What does this fold into?
Amino acid sequence: MVSFELTPEQQLLQETARRFAQNEMAPVAQQYDERGEFALKVYQKAFATGLLNDIIPEKYGGAGLTTFESTLIAEELASGCAGMTTTTLGNGLATIPLLIAGTEQQRERFLTLLTSKLTFASFDLTEPGAGSDAASMSTTATRKGNGYVLQGEKSFITNGGVASFHVVFATLDKSKRSKGVTAFIVPSDTPGLIPGKDESKMGHRASNTTSVRYENVEIPASLRLGEEGQGFKLAMQTLDRARSSVAAIGVGVARAALHHSAQYALERTTFGQPIAQHQGIQFMIAQMARDVEAARLLTWHAAWMVDQGMNASKESACAKLFATDTAMRAATDAVQIFGGNGYMREYPVEKLMRDAKLLQIYEGTNQIQHIVIARHVLDAAT
Ligand code: CAA
It folds into this structure.
């Protein structure tokens, strides 16, 4: 039987995240955004409240939540600030490969590091010349003695400059494309690992994004994550599991756009009545509400499938695609409803529009999500 009723524990979790977003994130979101400052104080409070590293099993000190429960948190936090939620997403992206392919020793060392004190981690896949076409990466891993030497450059890495460790993907043989890719865990104090400057971004400005250079970085074989040549699949499996969280951020941003739009439409008067009385405004608000509901259902379904151990590649791509497009549409319409005020920094909706844009780009552009979905549909039809 399908049930959409949350358990009392899940309701409490949702309520805790909602209160945190309203009380600790939303009031300072604009300041951090303006300054482009990493919101360390907020992350400290989120860590103390137990809202970080939620999917890490209890045996490593985490909350042991399901992917579904994690999306409940992500939606609430994103309604307060999408950029701050991206920082938590970065930790999740580094956690998932360890949960899928980590040895007990690796999990014990790195997952416990994330839960014992406020610690950040990153997922180093993208390169200046290899974004959507991840298998064409140029960062190399060369066997040396009982270990490897990494050489190359990664770009647009969330938490790149603040991470205590990086999950990095490198190729042992570029001619093999995806089959050459291998994953490694690299502690950030390893000589030769050099983060670039914090990028100045359009949105998500409370998060840290840098390039990461690997200059003859030597690591022991014990830090290889999974088998040689299995790194690409590991990256794809990780993204399949993480994309419902991006979708949840999209739902949170769209919900915030809807909330601000409804409030403003009731307050703002034109032609002798609140603009909420005009059908043009009502239609935009109704469409936002419709899409928020639909996006949430896709998100919950994809996350639920992950929790059942099912292949959720297509469903995660559908959720990510629809929810982040919804966020962009809702934020753009919110700016329209606010009119000239919507374009001004002192009102909250222009930030939503800037933040929504990145959701359509990171963790696989929405064009890549179309490709993933189409491949699944066409494979099933042949
Ligand atoms: N699960 C398991 N295995 C998978 C898989 C999946 N979801 N998808 C592909 N594979 C396997 C395939 O089965 C194939 O294996 P075999 O060779 O054994 O058959 C192998 O991987 C290669 O697959 P493809 O031939 O499909 O690979 P491709 O080169 O055509 O690329 C792609 C596929 C889906 C376009 C992939 O390149 C892709 O997802 N690109 C987008 C990358 C991305 O999302 N980047 C985001 C970076 S993270 C980020 O943004 C984080 C942040 O900071 C917030």
